[in-house]
Amino acid sequence: LFFPLVSFAQRKHGSTRKDGKLVDSKTERRLAQNREAAKKSRLRKKAYVQNLETSRVRLQQMEQELQRARSQGIFLGGGGAGGDMSPGAAMFDMEYARWLDDDGKRLAELRGGLQAHLADSNLGAVVEECMQHYDELFQLKAELARADVFH
């Protein structure tokens, strides 16, 4: 067996790795910084992947809404009464259909909360979400009025 002769001064400024080799403080600090940078990189990657997943789901929802609007003949001259509709009015009709779907879900959630006797703070949060949902409707209607007054 061979044990390297290391003075106390050398050991004081560094440490030993698992394989027994000495690592000076500069290398030790660099390794620690690399570990920290790798950890931050993994966290950024995780957030990026989650953001991509959210965007993918949102895109799928928008594609479904577009498909539903096309099947209903709402989008860009699908015939019937909507044939001479302005693009702004067509967008409003599509957004309003989405809003109605969301409204049904939110009202069902509110009814469920009332029947389940939720705590006031939880119920308040649900009511606040419903109020924001109606604010969204008013914004949609304001945009429609700017785009097509006679719709």
Automatic annotation (TrEMBL):
BZIP domain location is 24-68
Task: Name one molecular function that GO assigns to this entry.
Answer: sequence-specific DNA binding
Its primary localisation, in coarse terms, equals nucleus
Q: Which Pfam families match?
A: bZIP_1, DOG1
Q: Which GO terms describe its cellular component?
A: nucleus
| InterPro entries with a match to the protein in the record | bZIP (IPR004827), bZIP_sf (IPR046347), TGA_domain (IPR025422)
Q: Which domain of life is it from?
A: Eukaryota
The DOG1 domain covers which part of the protein?
89-151
Tell me the keywords, alphabetical order: Coiled coil, DNA-binding, Nucleus, Transcription, Transcription regulation
Look up the coiled coil feature and give its residue ranges.
Answer: 45-72
Which PROSITE patterns would you find in this protein's record? BZIP, BZIP_BASIC, DOG1
Subcellular localization: Nucleus
Role according to the record: Transcriptional activator that binds specifically to the DNA sequence 5'-TGACG-3'. Recognizes ocs elements like the as-1 motif of the cauliflower mosaic virus 35S promoter. Binding to the as-1-like cis elements mediate auxin- and salicylic acid-inducible transcription. Binds to the hexamer motif 5'-ACGTCA-3' of histone gene promoters.
- Subunit structure of this entry? Binds DNA as a dimer.
Q: Which family does it belong to?
A: Belongs to the bZIP family.
Name under which the protein is recorded: BZIP domain-containing protein
According to its UniProt entry, this protein's organism is: Aegilops tauschii subsp. strangulata
